[in-house]
Amino acid sequence: MKVEELHAKVGYRLSGRAQRYTEVRRSIVERLSRSGRPLTVPEILSSAKSVPLSSAYRNLTVLLEAGVVRRVAGTDDQGRFELAEDIAGHHHHLVCEGCGTVDDVPSSTRLESVMDEAARLAAEEQGYDVWSHRFDLIGLCRQCQG
Amino acid sequence: MKVEELHAKVGYRLSGRAQRYTEVRRSIVERLSRSGRPLTVPEILSSAKSVPLSSAYRNLTVLLEAGVVRRVAGTDDQGRFELAEDIAGHHHHLVCEGCGTVDDVPSSTRLESVMDEAARLAAEEQGYDVWSHRFDLIGLCRQCQG
DNA sequence: CTCAGTGCAAAGGATTTGCATGCCG
DNA sequence: CGGCATGCAAATCCTTTGCACTGAG
After folding, report:
1. Among B1, B115, B120, B114, which Cα is nearest to B68's?
2. Can you give the distance from the CA of residue A28 to the C1' of nucleotide D4 in angstroms?
3. Distance CA A59, CA A55 (A)
4. B127 to A141: CB separation less than 8 angstroms, yes or no
5. Over chain B (146 residues), what is each successive 10-residue block's mean pLDDT?
6. How far apart are CA A83 and CA A71, in angstroms?
7. Beta-carbon contacts of residue B79 (< 8 Å; ≥ 6 apart)
8. How far is it, in rounded angstroms, from Cα B100 to Cα B28?
9. CA B82/CA B104 separation, integer angstroms
């Protein structure tokens, strides 16, 4: 997705909630868009120094509510954020148990269809209303294998 | 798995690390064993009142290091714990975005084989050493659908 | 003018750690 | 006895909130 298209989409969703698409928010969205993986708040701010943590969290909350970003859980308790699926596309994660980093991995249609089937079955059995799934691979990234 | 067998297994792993299988640890393991889902620390303690949070966390850390329990991430930032896979068996999770509860779901051999294949491919491509995966279904539990 | 956005500082909540004591092996 | 285990309290870490101020529409 082109950057202009990305910003247009995000701006549209924010305006629909009477919220502005400010410079800080733009930079957060762009940072997430450029990174091929979910980022922690400090990582997001590493490019936009001088922005206080509280502002970052507040903006992320707004973007979260607007359905622009999504929170991702790793193995540590550090929160990570990525663009929503309908913007970044559906994918899976490689979670490193060494350093906690999470990388993106594309999915495959075959895998998706099997998972959807599994979701339907599980949902029926336990009365859940399932609308999404997450498939994460747990292991060690290249750096942590040393 | 029978309770005696469970305790024998856990006790063995702890003794291998020069650590005792105390009453509190037994109660934690039994609580997790009985529950069909990952529990938060307060939930674990609900049956063993009078045990301080710090002790629970310390014991969970020991059990974590001994490979007896595993930490599970939901959608909220509340940590949840369950028995390790080789004790509780491999399964998946139903995560409720409403209340944060996580329920267990059994897996299927077909699903597993497809996932293992996916894991191999992803691992090769990005240089990860993958040894496990997690497949979680996200939605709303029966209670939260009202 | 008005209301959302921003900074700074303080508050919160979950989890960890220091230290002295208790207890099993 | 020696070392792990435990309680309590204080400390941390990440995240959220209160409040006053700035700024865009």
Report:
1. B1
2. 48
3. 6
4. yes
5. 90 90 95 94 88 95 94 86 93 89 90 88 88 90 86
6. 9
7. A77, B40, B41, B71, B72, B73
8. 21
9. 10
**Residues near B144 by beta carbon (within 8 Å), at least 6 away in sequence:** B96, B97, B98, B99
Dist. CA B80–CA B73, nearest whole Å: 6
By CA distance, what is A73's nearest residue in B?
A: B73
Q: Are A114 and B111 in contact (CB under 8 A)?
A: yes
Task: Please report, rounded to whole angstroms, the spatial distance between the CA atom of protein residue A74 and the C1' atom of nucleotide D19.
Answer: 34
Q: How far is CA A112 from CA A90, A109, A115, B93, B95, in A?
A: 10, 5, 5, 17, 18
The secondary structure of residue A67, as a DSSP letter, is T
Contacts of B141 in chain A (CB under 8 A): 126-128
Q: Whole-structure pTM over 0.85, yes or no?
A: yes
What is residue B41's predicted lDDT score, i.e. its pLDDT? 95
> Nearest to residue A88, comparing CAs of A11, A22, A31?
A31
| Burial class of residue A18 (count of CB atoms within 10 Å of its CB; 0-12, 13-18, 19+) | exposed
Secondary structure of residue B83 in the 3-state scheme: strand
CA–CA separation, A74 vs B34, rounded Å?
Answer: 26
From B11, B40, B45, B47, select the one nearest B26 (Cα to Cα).
B11
Greatest Cα pair distance, chain A, in angstroms, is: 50
Backbone dihedral angles phi then psi of residue B3, each to the nearest 5 degrees: -60, -40
Q: Domains, chain A, ranges and CATH? A: 1-89 (1.10.10.10), 90-146 (3.30.1490.190)
